[in-house]
Amino acid sequence: MTMLGEDRLERFARHIVLPEVGGAGQAALAGKHLVLVGLGGIGSPALQYLAAAGIGKLTLVDDDKVDASNLQRQTLYNERDIGHGKAVSAKRWVKLFDPLLEVEISDRRIDAARAATLVEGADLVLDGTDNFATRLAVSDACVKASVPLLSAAVGRFQGQVGAFAGHLPDEACYRCFVGDAFDADDCDTCAEDGMLGAMAGWVATFASLHAIRVLLDGSSAYGDPQWSRVNLLDGMKPGMRQFTIAKDPECKGCSNSGGQ
């Protein structure tokens, strides 16, 4: 188990005094590796809370550059970041925020081969990207590498966060959820449909909360992955509901009959 020095004990004191987390839980977070795919409306605010939680190693993945229109919801960036790569800007933010965190970046477009390399050895992947082709490539790579996946999405006034562990015999993967019809870059974009900035923040912080639950599984009372469950967040009502995804016995991503 990772040991926490005196300075770290002070920094994370509000976590440590929670019986559901405690010193053991905080030490466990310090030894975890999370891969964050997408540093936009979800990944940007999510990263702030993931770093603040003391997750010891972060791999940040995004091939895009910061645009002025991003600043309405991507709270990690400021006007000085416009025109610069999101991955580089995000790494700079993390190292200024907490120099003891280990940060790796990838600023190249994800395909199936690159996804496999990026997720290998991680404890958890959080995907907040905006197209199905990338999401499905990441999901398939996670199943093959036996790495759990949190998938988060947002648009207009709605969002969803789901926890998938398709490498486990009775648990669904993200492909079980959406099927095979979306193996292309065909998502609607927030530029077309609009998005309330605070809605992205709600989905991002909920995803961060759930990531901590997954990473603490087996280390503290707060750990509860809730595999195969999808949470729907409605910003119009507002409200939430949850449903369970069944494993698809014909899924080509996670079922033996599907070619796994």
Automatic annotation (TrEMBL):
Superkingdom classification of source: Bacteria
Sequence ranges assigned to domain THIF-type NAD/FAD binding fold in this UniProt record: 13-252
InterPro entries: ThiF/MoeB/HesA (IPR045886), ThiF_NAD_FAD-bd (IPR000594), Ubiquitin-activating_enz (IPR035985)
Sections of the chain in a coiled coil: none
Protein name: HesA/MoeB/ThiF family protein
